[in-house]
Design brief:
By secondary structure, the chain is of the alpha/beta class. The protein is about 35% helix and about 25% strand. The structure holds cytidine-5'-triphosphate.
């Protein structure tokens, strides 16, 4: 199954490192070539000799090894593989990855790679459940990192709960899935995300509280299923995913232009919180307090990007998905919005301040389609993104 595939396996420092020895054997049985990288902590649990014997490969351990660097620089090492697998992925390694640290060979390779990364977390249950680890997990998923496990069970430390590294056959299945063309291979999807900034003058603007987290996670989830994603984003709090074509815009008008020039798409997801109005009499230079009274802003309506695309006579994407951020009568308003804008689906959510959704880590959505309203359980934004991407893949199949 994995014939001719080259896996760079990073072995972190956890008790589950012993399973990585079996992982190497099983990956090689499937035909893969495995190059192991052992962290300093990992070497406390498995020896370089056993990893080397099982992988029939040189083991890489040191960022500043002159011989290794002369043979193959660490940048090349991170790019020569088809997939990077981190097993076990400790809390420390996950934190380094999420923070973009590069202070040893493993973290440097992970920062320098342009290849897909699959992590198999393994740690004590309290470390796994700590908000810091959960935050790092959400960041990594938003960056497009694939995750397998952890499983729930008895832990080496005597506690019980989630934190056990996934079993070797589960990791092999995840490796296989990561190397197989996703269901959206060959499909082009446009995603809008983030707020827009509508200028009042060259230094001031009108904006909204959108962080761009949900749209960014959707773009990453679609790319993870193999889609070519054009990601049109306003000035968001979160960085765009790595494996998408990003177009940065400021205003609604620029967002419409970017969507229009993105070309034919199979699907389009409008997750941006587009400003409804722009300032028609925006100052060409900074408006001054010059004693002539308070400035009077005049507003003009912005183009509705979702409605424009949903109502295209030619070249309309097969599936047009809008969002409805509501504070009252969520389902009724979102259903009416779907009909008014003529999109296929609406992802409706309640953005009342007490829900903590706007700018928060979780989302509570109802999917409105031609068949009615489907209430989804409250999930993290990356989980909502993956569920939506899977539905889009089904619809385009
Ligand atoms: N949208 C868009 N262009 C706009 C306004 C909204 O593409 N100028 C899209 C959003 O990306 C979202 C959907 O339309 O997918 C719903 O936006 P929302 O602002 O909630 O709805 P409105 O049409 O503005 O209706 P209202 O303000 O009455 O709730």
């Amino acid at each position: 199954m994995l014939a001719n595939k080259h896996i760079l396996l990073i072995v972190g420092g956890g008790i589950a490192a012993f399973k990585s020895l079996d992982l190497v054997r099983r990956l090689r049985e499937q035909g893969a070539r495995v190059t192991p990288v052992l962290t300093t902590a990992g070497a406390e649990f498995v020896t370089p000799l056993s990893l080397s014997a099982l992988s029939a490969s040189k083991i890489y351990q040191d960022l500043f090894d002159l011989t290794d660097e002369a043979e193959m620089g660490h940048i090349e090492l991170s790019r020569a593989a088809d997939l990077i697998v981190v097993a076990p992925a400790t809390a420390d390694l996950m934190a380094k990855m999420a923070g973009g640290l590069a202070n040893d060979l493993a973290s440097t390779l992970l920062l320098a790679t342009d290849k897909r990364v699959l992590i198999a977390p393994s740690m004590n249950v309290r470390m796994w459940q700590h908000p810091a680890t959960q935050r790092n997990l959400a960041t990594l998923q938003g960056d497009g990192v694939l995750v397998v496990g952890p499983n729930e069970g008895d832990m080496a430390c005597g506690e019980y709960g989630p934190g056990r590294m996934a079993e070797v056959p589960e990791i092999i299945a995840a490796v296989d899935a990561a190397l197989t063309d996703g269901p959206l291979q060959g499909k082009h999807v446009i995603v809008t995300s983030g707020p827009t900034h509508e200028p009042i003058d060259p230094v001031r603007y009108i904006a909204n509280r959108s962080s761009g987290a949900q749209g960014t996670a959707i773009a990453a989830a679609l790319a993870a299923l193999g889609a070519r994603v054009t990601f049109v984003t306003g000035p968001a709090d979160v960085a765009p995913p790595m494996d998408v074509d990003t177009v940065q815009v400021q205003t609604a008008a620029q967002m419409l232009d970017a969507v229009t020039v993105a070309g034919a798409a199979d699907a389009a997801v409008f997750a941006a919180a587009v400003a409804d109005w722009h300032v028609a009499n925006a100052g060409a230079s900074k408006i001054k307090k010059d004693g002539s009274g308070l400035p009077k802003l005049e507003f003009a309506e912005n183009p509705d990007i979702l409605a424009t695309v949903a109502q295209m006579k030619t070249g309309r994407p097969k599936l047009v998905v809008g969002f409805a951020a509501e504070t009252d009568d969520v389902i009724a308003n979102a259903t009416a919005k779907r009909a008014r804008k003529q999109c296929d689906w609406i992802v409706a959510n309640d953005v009342s301040p007490e829900t903590g959704i706007m700018g928060g880590a979780e989302n509570d959505v109802t999917l409105i389609t031609q068949d009615g309203a489907e209430d989804w359980p409250r999930m993290t934004k990356p989980e909502v993104a993956r569920a939506l991407a899977a539905r889009i893949a089904e619809a385009l199949a």
